[in-house]
């Protein structure tokens, strides 16, 4: 008997050892990546506390995070990712080692699976399949993401194992093949359903490309059934979760973004994920992936490897050509679906719409990368086998081809070899102070959620990056944080955004503390150790707001953190980052995790959840009403049908829920300006966190004769790369405030950026137009402006030394005025800005907000400014920290302009709050008689704490800083009377963001300047002389430089500044008292005008409130009483003055009792995460029980008393996001609530795992190996006619590249036909190979030279795409027109040489 030949990969074969060696090499490669450090990958819990994480995943409702949330596919980690990490962590292995072992497993599974699959398919010799296996495990997508989001490439690693049993050489029955494939699918896991689904595509195509027989059809159906059973453990929970989940798919990247770079070239290379292109303030989002974009060698290498594999399809002897060709084509179409670049599919636009609609779950088409990559590496093995045959025929050295191939694979794996795959932010462990803070919080008595601030997209710290919030894994107490992916729901997200806006503005107040308390927040954790690149608001702002709200700081943890490189001569962010403890904790007074509110004290609110914090002091609970409803509000499944609205305490109408766009990728400053009804939204299906049932959002309109104010872009737009925050809208140039400005938002040169106003009827603007340019050094120095009207255009060259400019206007009436930045200096990349455009008889003008109407009588009308901006001076304790970079303009500096429509007329009392307006008027108010008055030639900080007078206020914590462009900065001191002076002393506080003067020039009473050098102690002196004016001009200085991680460019020098100028001699002058009450007459406040009737007002407050930009009370005065609102549209305005800007205006109906009783705190217990018990006291009236957690449509409750059956309770949304239930009056009892879908979720998990165990048992009981019956070998490939093959190629070309693809397909057919006619028959196959090889190499070279620009439209961007599409189509056409050689049917039996291929002979076994 002849012995069975040795098979590669068995224990007796050297290839077994080589496979082990390959796995060891891959493992070593992974351990080279940031050794000793845990890097941010997938879920923090996997390395911090995997057992607790897996325990939480067993329930659908998770009260631990984000104010109560549904588990976001956490069940998917139950197999195999979670147990792998949990087992090794519990063994005591270091977290970083566990992480590297997991990465190693991914690469080794991919490597071994590809090897076995290639051998089973007979794709090549052992060494060529070995190379192909490495090419798959080290492919660009695998290396780009394995250290970033490893669970997303785990399905890619498992894909060969899912296909392998179906094509295996082993003598298995169909059941054995199906069982093994299904188990592989089960091990893929369910973290990402689409990525898991992608592994099913190639096996499905394998069946579809077989001959249509009954056996094949039954096998396909059996395999699909087994796969469903294998996936049931996560599929059922996914369906349950999807039925109750908020629409978070609408709040992540849109299809425009996810398909942005999915051009044919990138799909072919394996670099179609948009994050590989993204560069953030911290560097590349995917460091390894970015190298495949930037490096020409990597671009060329990755393409050449793909093209070599692709060319194997032109060879008639390539095994399984039909399957592999269909696989590559299907993969390319799936990956590029929705891409709308210059070369895109014919259905790209509608597909993109579908990906933002019904097919949103499939939006990330890059997850189908494995459908392209696996066939390509299998073809690579075949291609290398053919090349080896040719090299032997050419008598080349046998090691040459393996050496060159290995070099190519190593080249493509260079980012891994260079240890540059992980993100920055690796850490040895979570900083100990976070563990200490978590332990301290868990030890505190009482309930209460921990709110982590400030908001940030990801948790990136000075000591490392965890991406997820550390307290998520370290603490048992519930926590909440506003990050990039809010999972709690639209209502709580809007509420958290409002809290963050208050904190980011430094705007405290008692209502902030009340809002936090009724939100169930017991502690606020300020993470001072966030990385500077993660801070989007000044670090001091949250502290100022929390202290202003009356919260007490109760604990500090960790070492002081401050910017690296801070010194006497250099500062980061202009001395605004003060060394403070890493973590500081504030206690919220009287937090309520559950509360009881009588319906009589509950108010109905027309507005949004973001209005509730500002109204917290008015009512203990609000029920939000839809704008079109009359007696109920449908909010996410809840309604008011069970509530008698007559029992409610009244109705509040607010101006919230405005028409805006939201930047979903930002957690801070993420709102656009207010928008008109017809203003275009960014190009995505959903542009805001929309609360179901609230109807249309409130838009703005323009008073005649203005129809619209628009711009090419603005820095307040959410879809521009140059976004700077609120307050830079186009209408900022018409608000009458020179401190605000329209700023263009597109990155790059601002030349061509424009600002425009449209009129309702033609306007005669004269021949000249006065505009004021912005004084900021960070805006573009526009050299000329072009004015375009209906009558033509005129260009004016501007004077660089003047802010006020006269622009020439074409004569004649016009309905449109456009001002264009016509020219800017070369290299300018900052935005163009217009501070004011003077339209005679029209400006200043402000938009009017059309407040959503309420039904029935309205008791309170609440109007407010939503985006308050921020002062340049923020308070840290009792001292200000000032810097111009901290300032942010207010959205509505012109005041409040509202249209309020009521059903019922009434008389209303007026009161409100104002904020001080920076400028000379408010600074004059701060002066006291007899003090020294100081003026300056310029200033960098326009807040009151940065005014020139601060140099004589006796406080070294304040000071003046000159303007950046001031070449001769001068301070002039006006004395109240002549005094004999002998000199002055100059002092500069360390935290003053300025260079320190060393020389100065002093002029006394306008006399000859004295050039003086500042001596020891900061003093200069002169002979005693009586003077009344001292002018100090600063000369040389000790330069202090500043830098900012968020601003590009080198460090820049700060202008000169001083904290105190102390006059020496007879200079005893009074200084102002910051705590004195302001004495302001009637009429000093902003006028309130209602339907043409004006009410005079008066402001009350202290000087300190002005200095700290706090809110001051504002009420009518004199004979003013109530105002009348009509049962119609009411025009209400509160126009800003030169001192005050209204930020809140409240109109309270006469006779309405605004003093409602506070809520009653209740004790809440949770027997399980999905169950709640609340003990209720006796109630004399119907009431609301409010749980401080997100409302969920699956929650139900019943009231259990001492007698009788439990009473079902009506669920309600309270405050726009909290879970509420209506309880009737009655004796004490217990409210028992449960989240119903949790039962189906847990049943799905249990039954799914039970079914999986049965599947495993069935396979073990009947493994499907040869048992005396005839084994089932895969069927032959289907045979397609030439027209069918041509039609298939044409459809593919059309789907891949649209008309381009179809034309290139025709061109390919013509080229190959001509070649066939003019070439000898024996050379046709060589030419059919050479033509696509040539176009592919040229396309790869052009792409490497010009760099991949998938959205580019110029020749250098489009031509490589066209050539590569031509290459693909040429290959497919060549494959379609060549028939495989006919072979005899092989012996079918235990010793069969292998599965039957597409009719081609087995691969050459020679090395």
Automatic annotation (TrEMBL):
TM stretches of this protein: 142-163, 183-208, 217-236, 295-313, 322-350, 370-388, 400-418, 1240-1261, 1282-1315, 1327-1346, 1358-1377
Keyword Ribosomal protein listed: no
Location of the Arabinofuranosyltransferase D third carbohydrate binding module domain: 936-1073
InterPro entries given in the database record: AftD_N (IPR021798), CBM_AftD (IPR056997), Galactose-bd-like_sf (IPR008979)
SUPFAM superfamilies reported for this sequence: Galactose-binding domain-like
Alpha-(1->3)-arabinofuranosyltransferase N-terminal GT-C domain location: 26-680
Domain of life: Bacteria
Keywords: Membrane, Transmembrane, Transmembrane helix
Entry annotated with the keyword Magnesium: no
Pfam families attached to this UniProt entry: CBM_AftD (PF24607), GT-C_AftD (PF11847)
Positions of the UniProt region annotated as Disordered: 1383-1407
Protein name: Alpha-(1->3)-arabinofuranosyltransferase
Gene source species: Ornithinimicrobium cryptoxanthini
């Amino acid at each position: 008997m002849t012995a069975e030949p040795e098979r590669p990969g068995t224990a007796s074969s050297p290839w077994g050892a080589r496979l082990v060696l390959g796995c060891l090499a891959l493992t070593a490669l992974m351990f080279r990546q940031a050794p000793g450090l845990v890097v941010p990958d997938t879920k923090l819990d996997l390395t911090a506390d995997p057992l607790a994480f897996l325990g939480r995943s067993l329930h659908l409702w998770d009260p631990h995070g984000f104010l109560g949330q549904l588990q976001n596919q956490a069940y998917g980690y139950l197999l195999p990712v979670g147990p792998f990490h949990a087992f090794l962590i519990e063994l005591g292995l270091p977290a970083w080692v566990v992480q590297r072992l997991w990465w190693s497993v991914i690469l080794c599974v991919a490597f071994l699976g590809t090897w076995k699959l290639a051998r089973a398919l007979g794709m090549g010799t052992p060494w060529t399949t070995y190379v192909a296996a490495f090419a798959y495990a080290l492919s660009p997508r695998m290396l780009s993401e394995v250290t970033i989001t490893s669970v997303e490439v785990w399905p890619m690693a498992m894909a060969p194992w899912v296909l392998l049993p179906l094509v295996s050489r082993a003598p298995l029955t169909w059941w054995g093949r199906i069982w093994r494939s299904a188990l592989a699918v089960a091990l893929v896991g369910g973290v990402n359903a689409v990525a898991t689904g992608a592994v099913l595509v190639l096996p499905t195509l394998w069946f579809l490309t077989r001959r249509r027989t009954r056996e094949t059809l039954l096998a396909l159906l059996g395999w699909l059934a087994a796969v469903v059973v294998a996936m049931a453990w996560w599929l059922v929970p996914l369906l349950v979760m999807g039925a109750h989940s908020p629409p978070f798919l609408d709040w992540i990247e849109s299809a425009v973004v996810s398909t942005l770079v999915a051009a044919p070239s990138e799909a072919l290379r394996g670099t179609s994920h948009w994050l590989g292109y993204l560069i953030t303030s911290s560097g590349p989002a995917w460091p390894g992936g970015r190298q495949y974009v930037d490096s020409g060698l990597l671009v060329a290498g990755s393409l050449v490897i793909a093209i070599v594999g692709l060319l194997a399809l032109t060879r008639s002897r390539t095994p399984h050509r039909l399957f592999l060709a269909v696989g590559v084509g299907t993969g390319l179409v799936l990956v590029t679906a929705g891409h709308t670049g210059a070369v895109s599919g014919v259905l790209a636009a509608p597909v993109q719409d579908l990906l933002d609609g019904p097919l949103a779950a499939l939006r990330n088409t890059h997850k189908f990368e494995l459908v392209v990559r696996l066939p390509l590496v299998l073809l690579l093995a075949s291609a290398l086998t053919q090349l080896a045959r040719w090299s032997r025929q050419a008598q080349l050295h046998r090691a040459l081809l393996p050496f060159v191939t290995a070099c190519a694979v190593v080249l493509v794996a260079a980012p891994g070899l260079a240890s540059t795959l992980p993100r920055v932010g690796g850490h040895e462990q979570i900083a100990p102070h976070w563990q200490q803070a978590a332990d301290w919080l868990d030890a505190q008595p009482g309930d209460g959620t921990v709110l982590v601030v400030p908001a940030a997209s990801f948790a990136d710290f000075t000591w490392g990056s965890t991406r997820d919030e550390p307290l998520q894994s370290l603490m048992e107490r519930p926590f909440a944080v506003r990050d990039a992916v809010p999972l709690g729901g639209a209502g709580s997200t809007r509420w958290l955004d409002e809290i963050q806006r208050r904190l980011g503005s430094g705007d405290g107040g008692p209502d902030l503390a009340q809002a936090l308390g009724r939100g169930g927040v017991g502690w606020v954790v300020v993470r001072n150790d966030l990385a500077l690149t993660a801070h989007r608001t000044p670090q001091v702002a949250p502290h100022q707001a929390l202290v202003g709200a009356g919260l007490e700081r109760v604990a500090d943890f960790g070492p002081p953190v401050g910017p690296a490189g801070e010194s006497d001569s250099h500062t980061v962010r202009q001395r605004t980052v003060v060394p403070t403890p890493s973590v500081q904790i504030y206690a919220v007074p009287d937090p309520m995790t559950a509360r009881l509110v009588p319906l009589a004290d509950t108010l109905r609110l027309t507005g949004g959840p973001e209005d509730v914090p500002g109204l917290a002091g008015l009512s203990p609970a609000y029920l939000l009403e839809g704008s079109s409803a009359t007696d109920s509000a449908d909010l996410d499944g809840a309604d008011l049908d069970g509530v008698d609205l007559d029992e409610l305490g009244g109705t509040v109408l607010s101006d919230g829920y405005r028409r805006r766009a939201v930047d979903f990728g930002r957690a801070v400053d993420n709102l656009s300006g207010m928008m008109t009804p017809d203003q275009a939204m960014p190009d995505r299906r959903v542009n805001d966190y929309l609360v179901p049932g609230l109807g249309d959002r409130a838009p703005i309109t323009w008073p005649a004769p203005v129809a619209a104010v628009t711009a090419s872009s603005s820095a307040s737009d959410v879809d521009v790369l140059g976004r700077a925050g609120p307050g830079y809208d186009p209408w900022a140039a018409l608000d009458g405030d020179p401190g605000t400005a329209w700023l263009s938002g597109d990155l790059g040169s601002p030349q061509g950026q424009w600002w425009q106003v449209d009129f309702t009827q033609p306007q005669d603007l004269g021949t000249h137009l006065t505009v004021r340019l912005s004084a900021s050094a960070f805006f573009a120095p526009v050299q000329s402006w072009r004015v375009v009207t209906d009558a033509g255009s005129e260009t004016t060259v501007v004077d660089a030394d003047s802010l006020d400019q006269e622009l020439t206007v074409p004569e004649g009436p016009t309905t449109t005025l456009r001002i264009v930045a016509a020219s800017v200096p070369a290299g300018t990349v900052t935005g163009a800005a217009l501070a004011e455009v003077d339209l005679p008889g029209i400006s200043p003008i402000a938009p009017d907000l059309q407040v959503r109407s309420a039904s029935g009588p309205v008791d309170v009308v609440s109007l407010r400014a939503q985006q308050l901006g921020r002062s340049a001076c923020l308070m840290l304790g009792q001292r200000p920290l000032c810097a111009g970079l901290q300032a942010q303009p207010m959205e509505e500096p012109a005041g409040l302009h509202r249209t309020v429509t009521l059903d019922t007329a009434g008389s209303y009392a007026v009161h409100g709050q104002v904020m001080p307006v920076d400028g000379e008027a408010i600074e004059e108010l701060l002066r006291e008689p007899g003090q020294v008055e100081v003026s300056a030639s310029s200033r960098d900080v326009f807040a009151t704490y940065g005014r020139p007078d601060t140099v004589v206020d006796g406080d070294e914590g304040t000071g003046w800083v000159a303007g950046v462009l001031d070449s001769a900065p001068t301070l002039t001191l006006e004395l109240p009377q002549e005094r004999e002076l002998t000199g002055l002393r100059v002092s500069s506080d360390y935290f003053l963001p300025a260079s320190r003067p060393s020389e100065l020039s002093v002029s006394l009473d306008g006399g000859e300047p004295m050039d003086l050098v500042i001596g020891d102690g900061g003093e200069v002196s002169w002979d005693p002389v009586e003077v009344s004016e001292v002018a100090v001009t600063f000369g040389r200085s000790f330069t202090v430089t500043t830098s900012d991680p968020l601003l590009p460019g080198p460090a820049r020098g700060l202008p000169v500044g001083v904290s105190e100028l102390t006059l020496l001699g007879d200079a005893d002058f009074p200084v102002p008292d910051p705590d004195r009450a302001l004495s302001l007459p009637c009429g000093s406040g902003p006028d309130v005008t209602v339907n043409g009737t004006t009410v005079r007002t008066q402001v009350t407050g202290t000087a300190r409130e002005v200095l700290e930009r706090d809110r001051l009370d504002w009420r009518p005065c004199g004979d003013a009483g109530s105002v009348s609102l009509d049962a119609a549209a009411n025009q209400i305005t509160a126009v800003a003055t030169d001192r005050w800007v209204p930020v809140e205006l409240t109109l309270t109906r006469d006779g309405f009792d605004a003093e409602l009783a506070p809520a009653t705190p209740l004790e809440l217990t949770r027997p399980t995460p999905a169950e709640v018990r609340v003990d209720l006291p006796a109630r004399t009236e119907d009431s609301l029980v409010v749980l401080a957690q997100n409302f969920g449509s699956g929650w139900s409750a019943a009231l259990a008393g001492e007698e009788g059956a439990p009473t079902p309770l009506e669920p309600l949304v309270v405050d726009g996001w909290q879970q509420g239930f209506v309880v009737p009056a009655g004796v004490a009892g217990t409210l028992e609530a449960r989240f119903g879908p949790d039962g189906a979720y847990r049943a799905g998990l249990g039954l799914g795992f039970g079914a999986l165990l049965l599947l495993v048992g069935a396979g073990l009981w009947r493994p499907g190996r040869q048992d005396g019956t005839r084994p089932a070998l895969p069927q032959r490939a289907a045979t397609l006619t030439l027209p069918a093959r041509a039609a298939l190629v044409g459809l593919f070309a059309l789907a891949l590249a649209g008309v381009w693809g179809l034309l290139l397909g025709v061109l390919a057919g013509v080229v190959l036909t001509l070649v066939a006619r003019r070439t000898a028959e024996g050379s046709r196959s060589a030419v059919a190979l050479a033509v696509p090889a040539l176009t592919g190499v040229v396309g790869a070279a052009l792409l490497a030279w010009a760099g991949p620009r998938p959205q580019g439209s110029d020749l250098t961007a489009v031509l490589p795409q066209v050539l590569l599409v031509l290459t693909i189509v040429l290959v497919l056409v060549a494959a379609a027109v060549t028939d495989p050689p006919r072979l005899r049917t092989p012996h079918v039996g235990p010793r069969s040489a292998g599965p039957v291929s597409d009719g081609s002979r087995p691969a050459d076994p020679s090395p």
